[in-house]
Amino acid sequence: MMIDRYSIALFLVFSYLVGLLDASAGDADPRYRGCVAECEKTGCAGGTCFPHCKFPSDGVANDGPWYMQEPLYLKWKQWDCQSDCRYNCMIDREKEREAVGHGPVKYHGKWPFTPVFGIQEPASVAFSALNLAMHFHGWLSFFILLYYNLPLRQDKKAYYEYASLWHIYGLLAMNSWLWSAVFHSRDVDLTEKLDYSSAVALLGYSLIVSILRSFNVRVEAARVMVAAPFLAFVTTHILYLNFYTFDYGWNMKVCVAIGVAQLLIWAIWVGITHHPSRWKLWVVVVGGGLAMLLEIYDFPPYQGFFDAHAIWHATTIPLTCLWWSFIRDDAKFRTSILLKKAK
After folding, report:
1. Start and end residues for every CATH 1.20.1070 domain found in the chain
2. Side-chain half-sphere CA neighbours of 240 within 13 A
3. Which DSSP helix (H) or strand (E) runs through 117?
4. Residue 260: is it exposed, middle or buried by C-beta count within 10 angstroms (0-12/13-18/19+)?
């Protein structure tokens, strides 16, 4: 759906400012930092030793010949010595805090999660995968409706003039949720950039589609004129993040501007249109707005799995189903109008 990834941007500003005050409370703890430093030297923390600490960043064993390489699947997960040390020191420190009645804190900007098979945030990964599946189902059902259930023109093209726009949207949405799942499974520089870049690409394109559909822009030349400046800006922004500096503050401002603009466009359009399925769009807009509250009232993961962000991912699943249902209804609605005009 249009508002599923970054329509929360307005509320995230508040969350971001609050998070700055406590984002690194855990990793600033002297006892935690001392534990990690000692672990990286000795390869052991709390009586547990890690074989990964025999491998430096190049993957070659410290105490063996050059051909002793770290297993490929461990390289892919990048679950290395530092990761093991940080995680186990975090767990030990959280047990100490819990024993004296203190609640959990964030370490390196993240809550302490319980990994499953090396997956850092299993709930967020599962919900991201489900969102990916819902977008695939929605796009596939939209494709079948257009080319198998609705009349086609003589050139075998759909009557629905926004078909190609929604096809591209579906592909971008699936790509975005794919990298969301990968990023939540293992947070490293590459997966972070792929997740953020994919999300920004989806956000920027969603704004373009919201303008084209709301203002009923059907002439190809006009569409190019509308889309060109937005595409140029989004492309430049992604290149800036990936090849110049990964500026979280600037990225937040960009997402706020695009997200708010998109949300306002759909809210105004649904308020004045007489579309027969406008109630579905109302539910998506209002439901997405309520889901934003989860980003404001951030809380630590319950049982080490379900934090506010993971639950927010869960709320977008039914909204995505309803969103694609609206798109299919819009295709039927526009096709019926064009068929009447053609007669």
Report:
1. 122-342
2. 13
3. none
4. middle
Tokens of 216: 């009923």
By residue count, the chain amounts to 343
Which pTM does this prediction carry? 0.79
Interhelix angle 278-291/308-342, rounded to 10 degrees, is 160
Write the pLDDT tens digit of every residue in 164-209. Answer: 999 999 999 999 999 999 988 887 778 889 999 999 999 999 999 9
Distance CA 163, CA 146 (A): 8
Residue holding tokens 């030793």? 49
What span, in angstroms and rounded, lies between the C-alpha atoms of 113 and 336? 51
Q: CA nearest 83: which of 179, 188, 194?
A: 188
Give the Cβ contact number of residue 224 at 10 Å: 10
Query: Burial of 3 by CB count in 10 Å (0-12 exposed, 13-18 middle, 19+ buried)?
Result: buried
CB 164 within 8 A of CB 134: no
CATH architecture of 122-342: Up-down Bundle (1.20)
Cα 61 to Cα 135: distance, rounded to the nearest angstrom: 43
